[in-house]
Amino acid sequence: MTNSPTLLDRDHSYVWHPYSSMTANHAIFPVKSAHGVRIKLTDGRELIDGMSSWWSAIHGYNHPAMNQAISDQLKDMSHIMFGGLTHQPAVDLAEQLVKITPKSLNTVFFVDSGSVATEVAMKMAIQYWYAKKQPEKQKMLTIRYGYHGDTFGAMSVSDPENGMHSLFSDTLAQQFFADAPNCNFNQDCTEADIEPLHTQLKNNQHQIAAIIMEPIVQGAGGMRFYSPDYLKRVRKLCDQYHVLLIMDEIATGFGRTGKLFACEHAEIEPDILCIGKALTGGYMTLAASLCNDDIAETISNGEPGLFMHGPTFMANPLACSAALASLEILFNSPWQQRVKQIEQHLKSGLTPCLQHPAVKDVRILGAIGVVELHKPVNMQKIQPQFVEAGVWVRPFNHLIYLMPPYIIGIDDLNTLTTAVATIISNIEDEL
Ligand code: PMP
Prior knowledge:
The chain is of the alpha/beta class. It has 2 domains: 7-62 and 334-430, Aspartate Aminotransferase, domain 1; 66-331, Aspartate Aminotransferase, domain 2. It contains 13 helices and 16 strands. A hairpin with a 5-residue loop joins β8 (217-218) and β9. It is globular. The model has no long low-confidence stretch (mean pLDDT 96). Bound molecules: 4'-deoxy-4'-aminopyridoxal-5'-phosphate. 4'-deoxy-4'-aminopyridoxal-5'-phosphate binds at residues 54, 113-115, 118, 147-149, 214, 219-220, 248, 250-251, 276.
């Protein structure tokens, strides 16, 4: 008699996971459910969540008010096309987003994922210059170590090495790259920091439609933090050289860095803003690109008079209802205080890791704690160790990082930082 295949066997046979191989046997852990900051595996083990499901589940899992909002919306409709039709959740959400984002952003274009939000932002920038009779401005300028998504346009502005540009060189749009600044969050921006971007602008301004960057925190491209002063200089240069500024706040938005949006650290406003991830509290896939009146009017009044984009699941009502509920929960919570508290505990819990010779740097900002190692982690080895320690932490390359849900308690946070410190102290043999 043969045993019927387990969930893991079937997963291994049929399912391709993110950034994974179908032939190598990567460790995968089946999840039964998740509540608050705890992820319950099918074998009964519970893990404390250190990842917020890739920056998104800021209120934790299975939140009663979020569940209620979605089941209420389900009674009216789960989805309806957005071409020629509209609905309350989309209008309410757009109005709310215009209120909470930088003042000049008054128009919201909903999409279904972060990558598509960056595609849409880049299309907006190109169409803007086309409508202004400057069709030669088609290229983007960005800095190294960025990450803006996995679709082709988004990939073309993500770090060339992490994004494996050489692999896609015949199809990937060629954009302009400048060296990333070396000024940390608390430092001033020097001439040496801004010079590479400035030079690219000076030399190529007539081809450049927009600069696209993640403000203050570069996420999946290297988890680097940089100075608000640099961002201020970038804004000035954009105005000086007639180039739009796209801020990708898909990872940083909704409080993660201690401000509602990271561009607030620099007190600047982008021309286009991309948001996603925590927009729905991690419940549903939804993202948006917001723009200012100049962009909305120029595109709408110019040739061809329409913005050329419109996904099937645009402004999905369930996702919009989830986003409205998530914003209400966020604004009714002491989120700034919580993020500050997480920041303090990440500092005290992770800074001692600097003593270990495998560790190159420890950096903390808001509810983000990063331990950078000299060498890439051995995922096959380290991932099960975290699970054994009762925590869910998903390192990549040289980076072990924590970005827990804002509702996490101090004891759980201590368990997370202790697990990181202990596991790092055991990686001697990797050196
Ligand atoms: N931009 C940034 C800054 C991101 O961190 C991500 C996702 N990690 C994306 C864009 C792409 O978002 P999505 O995975 O929803 O397509």
